[in-house]
Structure formats: C-alpha cells, structure tokens
C-alpha cells in the first residue's frame, strides 16, 4: 500500500482551543515513546486528531457511497471531470484518482496509534482518570470500525492494519483480506466500543459530533444488515427506538435536521464550525454567485455533480401536503439556479444542505462553511428496520417503519400491503430511502447490500440502467453491471504498483 509510512502524529489537525497548528514531529520512534502520550491533555488532543483526520476522507466516503447511485448526473465546467463520469456510467479504470484510499488509511493509522499508545499516559499523569481513558478508547475503536466499514463496502476485500507506523523496521501485511475477515474485525471493534464508549455528552456538539453508545449501535446495525443478520440488526435498533422514537422532528420543523443540525433525532454528525476546516457540502451541492468581502462576484462553489433531473425523486402530493415536507417537494428540494457563472451553465442545488430557511430560496451566506455531514440519524434506522423486517417476511411491521417516516413528513402513509413484497418491496424501499436520505452519502451502498441477496440482483441493475443520467443505453449499463464484482471498486493503480502483496481484482485487470 502506497504512502502508509509517515509521521502519524504530525498529521493531526486539532480542534482544540489550546492548539491551532499541526504538532511538531520528530522521528516516529522518539516522538511516540519520549515526547508524546505523557498526560491527559496530549491524549485528548490526539482524540480530537482522530476526528479531524476524517475530514480529509470525507470526499471518499461520499463518492464511494453515493455517486454511483441514480441520484447524480455530470455537473458542468471544471468541477466535473472524467473521474466522476467513470463512476456514474459504471466504466471504472484503476487509474481513477477517486479510488485512492490514502486518506482513509491515514485516518486508520492515526486511530491505531491512539489505541496502542494512549494507555501509557496513565503511567505519567496521576490525574488522568482511567474511566475517561476507557471511554476515549471506545470512541477510537468505533471510529476505526467506521473507516473499515466504508472500505469494505467500497472495495470488498481490503488490507487490515491494526498497528500504527512507528518505525521503518516494521513489517506490515498489506495483502487484501477477505470481506468476511474485515467484517469480523469491524464487529470485534464495535463490540468493544459498545462496552466502553460514553453514553452521551453534556455538550450538544459532542453529543452529536462524537461517538456515543447510540452511534455505535447505529453503525453496528448497519453492519449487521450488510451481513444479512436481520435479527441482530433489529436487536441493536431496539435500544435506539427507546432513545429516539419520541424525538422525531415534527413536519413543519423538518428543516432543523439540516440547519442548524444536531437535531433531536441525530445520532452522529461530523461537526463543522466557524473555526477549523470548511464543510465540503457546498463544494458538492452548490453553484451560485455571492458577493465576497471585497464586493466582487465570483463562482463560490461549482458542483462536482448535479441531480439527475430525469429521476422522479419527488412525486407530486396533494395541496394539503405541499408545504410541509420540502425534502420531497421538488420545487424546494432541488432548486434550479438558472444563472450562468463564468461560463458555467445552470445547475440544480440540494437545498436541504444549503438553505437558511425552508420554503424560500435563502442561503446561509456567511455561514456556508458550517453545514454538518450526517453519518446517522434515526430515520435511517427506521429504514434499516423496514429492510430487516421485510427480509424476515414481516411486511406489516416493515410498512409501519416507513409510515413513521412518512407521518413525520406529513405525507400520506402507505395503505396496508401497498409496498408489496420481495423485489417489489425492496425497490420501493430504495425509493423511500432516496426521498428521505437523498444525497446523504449511502444510497449506492444500500442498493448493493440489497441486490447481493439471491433473487434481488436485478434491483440495482435496473435502477442504474433505466433512464441513465448520462444517456447511456440501458443494455450498455446492464452489461457493465451483470458481474457483481463490478459493483465494487478496483484498487487504485498506484496502490497495486507500489504494493507487491496487493493483486488487482480479476474483473479490472485488463482495464
């Protein structure tokens, strides 16, 4: 694996009030053992470094989990390039830069360093409470599991690294481990995390922006669903129901989920603020003019991708429901910006991430750097439960979960049996997910998860190939997706060239 050897602690970008610069580093051996991990403050700084390292991986998380779904079409100008096009038309080559997993493994390496070295601070700082260290360790194991879960869903078989780089003398096994081994590793981390992670935090930003037991449960339920352990998924969701069933945002307050964020039904969000890195959401989903501090107009952010306008994402509703749920109401869910900016054509914008208020085109202006990235919220848990119940042939309970979401969007509930069974139900469920969770980063993963089950294979293929956003013929896209190995990404060319232990997948070897 290329570029895994670097001074791990020098990569920390700290969200602390006491340190606003990258840590000075020495050679790794001396730093780890002689200069760092000496007290509680250093351990806490390293903990924050684990979270901040995820920001650099955010584009990979989102691209791998969403851009191949039917929600996207090419953007315009320099913001769109052939790399995104390859993913959208399912014709992916190993040289594609979007395949690089460097930032994700860098985050994992930082977490590995924390897991190995943080306990040593107890020997040097008698004021450091062991119980606080235990909860921090729970956060670390959960974050490592989250990173590996992204990797395994995107690539299937990936290397497992559970040690930090601390010396040039270390030897690592960089071969790709089978998917089952990676998932076992993830579940082992989550089991420890559930026991040790904090129940909650008094500080609101930490309550939703750091790992808690509920965040572990949501992530683990997602893993169980990926592994077709439907009873295990429901067991984990049961504890989440006890915490969140009464917290669903009411219809006319739906927008608080996204602005200001950290709503009562949130489980885990990546926090952005006026200090620190800027949220990538505007770069992905906005294309509009605004006036900068000097009064000059400029293209603030060109979208990498835009909505596939041919997709019927937001079906019409009766007038009585037309103003209460603008996640689904197309005139506000996706705003068409008709201006032309420096040669860029018009684009559609995902308003739920960008706007300052519902029901009118009013953007966040000076605060456009702060939209949070939502990893898990309770409505997704309800969709997980619906999927698990359906796979257990408990369709009445499955529809009840969907109707809870619909009820809190003030749109008509499904009538008994309306969603059908089997393939019909799962196809409908994917659309229901898109209505609610569209552009939140996981819809390709959801389609892959469902379609890998025997008898459901054509769901992903038909969804991807019908009315293709780049105008590719149905049969062309279908042919590219018939082999399920195409649903997973190839290893980046550089990784294969620099790592003799990593063999390119057979499906991609001649590309």
From TrEMBL:
This protein's UniProt keywords: Cell outer membrane, Membrane, Signal
Domain of life: Bacteria
Domain annotation SusD-like N-terminal: ranges: 79-223
InterPro entries from the UniProt entry: SusD-like_N, SusD_RagB_dom, TPR-like_helical_dom_sf
Residue ranges of domain RagB/SusD in the record: 359-508
Principal location: membrane
Pfam family, one: SusD_RagB
Keyword Ribonucleoprotein: no
Localisation per UniProt entry: Cell outer membrane
PROSITE patterns reported for this sequence: PROKAR_LIPOPROTEIN
Family designation: Belongs to the SusD family.
Name of the protein: RagB/SusD family nutrient uptake outer membrane protein
Organism: Parapedobacter deserti
